Amino acid sequence: MTKRYAEYRDSGVEWLGEVPTHWRLTRLRFAVTLNPSRTEVTDLREDAEVSFVPMEAVGERGELSLSQTRPVSEVSSGYTYMREGDVTFAKITPCFENGKGAIMRDLVGGIAFGTTELTVLRARPDTTDPAFLARLLGSPIFRRTGEAAMYGAGGQKRVPDIFVRNFSLALPPLPEQQAIAAFLDREVGKIDGLVEAQRRLIALLAEKRRAVISHAVTRGLNPAAPLKPSGVDWLGDIPAHWVRTKAGFYIKVISGFAFPSTGFLHGGDGERLLRGTNVGVGRIDWDDVVYWAREENDGLEGFELEDGDLVLGMDRPWISAGVRVARISAKDLPCLLLQRVACIRPKPALHSRYLESLLATDAFVHHFLPETTGVSVPHISPKQIVEFPIPLPPLDEQAAIVAYVDAQTGRLDALSAEAERAVSLLLERRAALISAAVTGKIDVRDEAEATEAA
């Protein structure tokens, strides 16, 4: 069991509180070299290969991908310089808040260049251990105070170097830093293993959920029902009494209105606008919301959403979690449809919930993906929606399928929610453990020594 140190003193820093008496109070600029100069490597040959580190190569739990290399001639200007053992963190939002950062290890030639959105800290070898430093920079205390110091607007906010230089910390003796880092490597590694196990379970449950839905809406509930070819390769055989038709005969597609952003309101005034950012996989998310002031006879009645409408994010319609389609409920109303979101309103012969399940299947992805437009932001058109080939059972059978899918996915969703809660608790435990260790709230020296002895 972890214990507290025998003696503490007030640090004089509100968020740091009491620290062990023998820890040295200092500022980060005295413990590291910040953003070392690339003049250290001016003698490198222009054709020498070095590691290249874009932002996507840096993980949120210290991971580092070194699959890319570049010749020095391509990266010596306009990129951030790093050396073996340097500690980095992403300074731009939301990467900083998400915890992106890593120790530079196993670099080609011991050198790397990468994104300019990384801040580089080189531990002073006589005072600071890189692994301890990396844990400190990844701790909630550093992230929270850094977030408060960010400057800039919107998605371009950054942590300034002056905050890093002046960051107050309590530094234990070097051997103790190494012991703390070793303890955290072991204990955090255990937690990370448990988190990964829960995330694998969540992924398996999501895969099972998609399979349940797909089988029900393409094969029905009667395993003995005679089948017939659908005439669509990726759809396969369907029950013989079903009809294969186009979605367009049974739905109305409404494209959103091009509301000018200059008229967006905040703070709850006006009527909510449903934007692409509000459409998730199977859910509507109003965390980021803008409003529009209605006027009499403004001609916007055709863009008013109704209870039971389906909405589809037309930009990047498919993400790793699934198709960005969701159903509007009474609690979402009133709201207006913004451009780049499609409203799909089924006619009486097509059950809204059955259609929702169809649109969530891989069959829909197979239909639209080959003809998706756009490179950086894939886009689906209303034409692709109405031309979607759908298997259509009688209306009463659609209702039965919906009830079955609800029952089956309800069980899977409950298991997934339980796993998500477990992940949340584990991550809270992880953050608390790191914070407690790097600020001296717990003494782990005996545990580290016991591990070394074992």
From TrEMBL:
UniProt entry tagged with the keyword Transit peptide: no
Keyword Nuclease included in the entry's annotation: no
Listed Pfam families: Methylase_S (PF01420)
All copies of domain Type I restriction modification DNA specificity, residue ranges: 323-407
InterPro entries linked: Restrct_endonuc_typeI_TRD, Restrct_endonuc_typeI_TRD_sf, Type-I_RE_S_subunit
GO biological process: DNA restriction-modification system
Single GO molecular function: DNA binding
Keywords: DNA-binding, Restriction system
UniProt record similarity statement: Belongs to the type-I restriction system S methylase family.
Protein name: Type I restriction enzyme, S subunit
Record organism: Albimonas donghaensis
